[in-house]
């Protein structure tokens, strides 16, 4: 995406010597983001990259490779050299959801988990005049009217759709999924009345909840979300195990030196907990959440397995 | 009013002013280089702005955005290479003008038209924008489908003398548009097991190849070792006569209106605005045959249309929190990083910042008058004086750099080469290239919208026709198709008499 990135690509290819930790990092790190510039993942990663640059004492070049719900960027990144100068800043969907519906060339084993950074729930919202307000009423209304309501989501087989379907399957609810290009597009169609239910990130719809135009009966996290006091978390509805979150993480290519992994993971943890970053996350309705190294790998695997079961039941 | 005077006071300080002037110049430059585009430049600059005063950062965004939309016209006129997708329509009449020695006049028209379009759009953003933003919400998937069809109908006017070849080109564009992951089913289409094809072919990569390579090869064919002499390149800076200005006025008004209307709809975009404006100017003209042969109105319409899209595309972003294109998404992203929450409360949350950004969109459009004309004629036009042996390799290098940095993968260079060779062959056999790009842009929009609309109506196709806005769009589409035929028939009858 940048001149800088191009130059770095060339230097990275030319560099043959494996890095020694004492000297790491000695040159620019390239960070691949599997989404276009300007989106949620992009904004979070760029903001974090500034803090990391400071702490690591090197510059970070951002390369946006969008397309295929993140699979294009992930496929391109998996071929990078595991020398610590290629990082992948992603959200969970390209790793745990997209492989359920697409034939991708990568698997979880193609990457070295470094650390997760932040997380947020998805929410389901309706217009103020919808005949249900609490989470329980909302699910009852949907269950009583199979096939009547449409809900917008971030794309077929996307994490948002699977998050909703996990809940719907538990309650035998049948709602019509309408896939859009992203939360902004879903919001546009929800506000215009083209779909009945908004399904997507909290920060996008939040201003309309505050203005009273929309109300959100449900979030897809187990716990309630402070920004949406009217919404039930899944624990309150007796299905805490159906939690699906949107979360972000930084990974390396397969075979990354464990010493570099732990150095990076610690630096990322510091950066994420920087007061400025926490404040920034808050405006986006996200909270810091750092899971490092192998624990992150286990989290990815668990989510992958749970979503595989849902998508199989959906026939995707 | 107080809202804007407060904002203006903040904008007219050293920081934002320097940022706007520098960024507008940079924007013209970026727009003028094929392959480099404003999205890339703004994404590259944004991280630098996180620690800056937001009005300085937004001034840079405004300058690059407006500057580059005009800058795209410079190579479009001088070399027949559109600097951005939105300046394809500028090549239709701009290059023929340059070819007959009116390069500086064409550049001047482009400059003035861009500035006028940008100013009209910024005024719309500052006045009716927030009111109109709510109206756009009535456009659902069914309406977007008809907008795409309306856009495609305008291809009919662009296909030139041989409709069959034009339709072939459009179908090729539609086919290319189907490549990659299908957003509605998650299935990969025409990807041949290649991961880099999952995202489809990149519009900019195809555009650079298709549009920049054929003119470059033609330059090479000429084997021109000398280039133009200073005398051949007439760079007289003649002021417009009052009659000329009056003749552009209706075109500017029409194109500004079209650009603003397209811009305000999230997801439509400047490429479509320029095509529609060009088409409307041609339809309104008494002499539609002269379009494509160097009619100054064609340049004015296209350039005014693509700049009029700019500020208007910020309307849904700033008043609803819905980004209609990537630049708007980047602006919202910058606001988020500065701690603001995009949405309807944005105006109340920070009126100085929002008002200031609107003011900057206006001022950078005005700057195009001052900076654009001089820069284009004094600097860029000089490139025409380079002999072919220097010009050809320089453009090729710029193209390769521009294409490579988009995704950082070498395979894009092969795509560019392939598209370029196809473009070169097509030009030899008189197949127009514009319908290919239009097909690539409008095909996915039409397909996804109609499928979404049918999902929402549970498969009931009558829903596509019964909604009031759809009906209006259908009538407009029919008019666009029928009007040129009616006019041609009427002219033939007059001539027969």
TrEMBL record, chain A:
<dbReference type="Pfam" id="PF03401">
    <property type="entry name" value="TctC"/>
</dbReference>
<keyword id="KW-0675">Receptor</keyword>
<keyword id="KW-0732">Signal</keyword>
<protein>
    <submittedName>
        <fullName>Tripartite-type tricarboxylate transporter, receptor component TctC</fullName>
    </submittedName>
</protein>
<dbReference type="InterPro" id="IPR042100">
    <property type="entry name" value="Bug_dom1"/>
</dbReference>
<feature type="signal peptide">
    <location>
        <begin position="1"/>
        <end position="22"/>
    </location>
</feature>
<comment type="similarity">
    <text>Belongs to the UPF0065 (bug) family.</text>
</comment>
<dbReference type="InterPro" id="IPR005064">
    <property type="entry name" value="BUG"/>
</dbReference>
TrEMBL record, chain B:
<feature type="transmembrane region" description="Helical">
    <location>
        <begin position="7"/>
        <end position="33"/>
    </location>
</feature>
<feature type="transmembrane region" description="Helical">
    <location>
        <begin position="388"/>
        <end position="407"/>
    </location>
</feature>
<feature type="transmembrane region" description="Helical">
    <location>
        <begin position="39"/>
        <end position="65"/>
    </location>
</feature>
<feature type="transmembrane region" description="Helical">
    <location>
        <begin position="144"/>
        <end position="160"/>
    </location>
</feature>
<feature type="transmembrane region" description="Helical">
    <location>
        <begin position="352"/>
        <end position="376"/>
    </location>
</feature>
<dbReference type="InterPro" id="IPR002823">
    <property type="entry name" value="DUF112_TM"/>
</dbReference>
<keyword id="KW-1133">Transmembrane helix</keyword>
<keyword id="KW-0472">Membrane</keyword>
<protein>
    <submittedName>
        <fullName>Putative tricarboxylic transport membrane protein</fullName>
    </submittedName>
</protein>
<feature type="transmembrane region" description="Helical">
    <location>
        <begin position="167"/>
        <end position="184"/>
    </location>
</feature>
<dbReference type="Pfam" id="PF01970">
    <property type="entry name" value="TctA"/>
</dbReference>
<feature type="transmembrane region" description="Helical">
    <location>
        <begin position="320"/>
        <end position="340"/>
    </location>
</feature>
<feature type="domain" description="DUF112">
    <location>
        <begin position="17"/>
        <end position="438"/>
    </location>
</feature>
<keyword id="KW-0812">Transmembrane</keyword>
<feature type="transmembrane region" description="Helical">
    <location>
        <begin position="109"/>
        <end position="132"/>
    </location>
</feature>
<feature type="transmembrane region" description="Helical">
    <location>
        <begin position="464"/>
        <end position="486"/>
    </location>
</feature>
<feature type="transmembrane region" description="Helical">
    <location>
        <begin position="196"/>
        <end position="217"/>
    </location>
</feature>
């Amino acid at each position: 995406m940048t001149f800088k990135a191009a130059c770095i690509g060339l230097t990275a290819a030319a560099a043959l010597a494996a890095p020694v930790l004492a000297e790491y990092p000695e040159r620019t790190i390239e960070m691949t983001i599997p989404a276009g510039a300007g989106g949620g993942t992009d904004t979070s990663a760029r903001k974090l990259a500034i803090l990391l640059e400071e702490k690591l004492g090197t510059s970070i070049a951002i390369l946006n490779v969008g397309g295929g719900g993140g699979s294009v960027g992930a496929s391109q990144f998996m071929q990078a050299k595991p020398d610590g100068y290629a990082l992948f800043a992603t959200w969970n969907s390209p790793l745990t959801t997209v492989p359920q519906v697409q034939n991708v060339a990568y698997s979880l084993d193609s990457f070295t988990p470094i650390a997760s950074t932040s997380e947020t729930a998805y929410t389901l919202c309706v217009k103020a005049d919808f005949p249900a307000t609490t989470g329980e009423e909302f699910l009852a209304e949907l269950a009583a009217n199979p096939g009547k309501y449409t809900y917008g989501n971030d794309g077929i087989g996307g994490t948002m759709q699977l998050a909703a379907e996990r809940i719907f399957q538990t309650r035998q609810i049948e709602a019509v999924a309408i896939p859009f290009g992203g939360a902004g597009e879903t919001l546009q169609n929800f506000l215009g009345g083209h779909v009945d239910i908004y399904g997507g990130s909290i920060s996008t719809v939040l201003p309309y909840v505050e203005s009273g135009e929309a109300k959100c009966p449900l979030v897809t996290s187990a716990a309630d979300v402070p920004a949406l006091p009217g919404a039930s978390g899944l624990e309150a509805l007796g299905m805490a195990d159906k939690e699906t979150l949107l979360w972000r993480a930084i990974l390396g290519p397969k075979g990354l030196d464990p010493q570099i992994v732990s150095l990076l993971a610690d630096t990322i943890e510091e950066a994420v907990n920087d007061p400025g970053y926490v404040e920034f996350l808050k405006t986006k309705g996200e909270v810091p959440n750092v899971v490092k190294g192998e624990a992150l790998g286990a989290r990815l695997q668990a989510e992958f397995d749970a979503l595989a079961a849902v998508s199989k039941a959906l026939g995707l | 009013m107080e809202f804007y005077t407060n904002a203006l006071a903040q904008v007219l300080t050293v920081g934002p002013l320097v940022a706007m002037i520098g960024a507008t110049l940079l924007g013209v430059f970026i727009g003028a280089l094929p392959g480099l585009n404003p999205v890339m430049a703004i994404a590259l600059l944004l991280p630098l702005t996180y620690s800056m005063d937001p009005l300085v950062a937004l001034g840079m965004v405004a300058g690059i955005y407006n500057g580059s939309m005009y800058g795209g016209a410079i190579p479009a006129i001088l070399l027949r290479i559109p600097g951005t997708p939105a300046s394809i329509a500028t090549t239709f009449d701009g290059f023929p003008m340059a070819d007959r020695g009116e390069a500086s006049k064409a550049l001047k028209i482009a400059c003035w038209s861009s500035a006028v379009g940008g100013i009209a759009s910024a005024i719309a953003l500052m006045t009716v924008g927030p009111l109109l933003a709510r109206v756009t919400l009535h456009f659902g998937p069914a309406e977007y489908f008809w907008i795409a069809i309306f856009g495609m109908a305008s291809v009919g006017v662009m296909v030139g003398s041989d409709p069959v070849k034009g339709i072939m080109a459009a179908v090729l564009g539609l086919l290319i548009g189907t490549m990659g992951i299908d957003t509605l089913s998650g299935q990969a289409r025409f990807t041949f097991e290649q991961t880099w094809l999952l995202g489809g072919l990149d519009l900019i990569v195809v555009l650079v190849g298709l549009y920049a390579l054929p003119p470059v090869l033609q330059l090479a064919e000429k084997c021109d070792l000398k280039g133009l002499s200073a005398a051949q390149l007439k760079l007289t800076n003649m002021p417009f006569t009052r009659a000329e200005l009056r003749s552009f006025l209706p075109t500017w008004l029409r194109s500004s209106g079209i650009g603003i209307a397209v811009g305000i709809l999230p997801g439509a975009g400047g490429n479509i605005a320029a095509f529609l404006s060009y088409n409307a100017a041609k339809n309104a003209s008494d002499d539609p045959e002269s379009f494509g042969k160097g009619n100054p109105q064609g340049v004015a319409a296209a350039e005014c249309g693509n700049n009029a899209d700019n500020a208007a595309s910020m309307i849904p972003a700033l008043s609803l929190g819905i980004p209609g294109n990537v630049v708007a998404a980047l602006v919202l992203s910058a606001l988020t990083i500065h701690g603001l929450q995009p949405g309807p409360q944005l105006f109340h949350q920070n009126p100085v910042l929002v008002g200031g950004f609107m003011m900057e969109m206006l001022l950078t459009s005005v700057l195009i008058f001052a900076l654009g004309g001089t820069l284009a004629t004094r600097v860029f036009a000089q490139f025409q004086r380079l002999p072919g042996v220097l010009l050809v390799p320089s453009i090729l290098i710029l193209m390769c750099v521009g294409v490579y940095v988009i995704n950082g993968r070498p395979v894009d260079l092969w795509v560019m080469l392939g598209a370029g060779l196809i473009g070169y062959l097509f030009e030899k056999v008189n197949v127009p290239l514009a319908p290919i790009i239009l097909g690539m842009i409008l095909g996915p929009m039409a397909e996804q919208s109609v499928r979404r609309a049918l999902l929402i109506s549970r498969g009931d196709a009558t829903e596509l026709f019964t909604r009031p806005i759809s009906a209006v769009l259908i009538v407009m589409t029919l008019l666009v198709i029928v009007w040129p035929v009616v006019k041609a028939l009427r002219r033939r009858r007059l001539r027969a008499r």
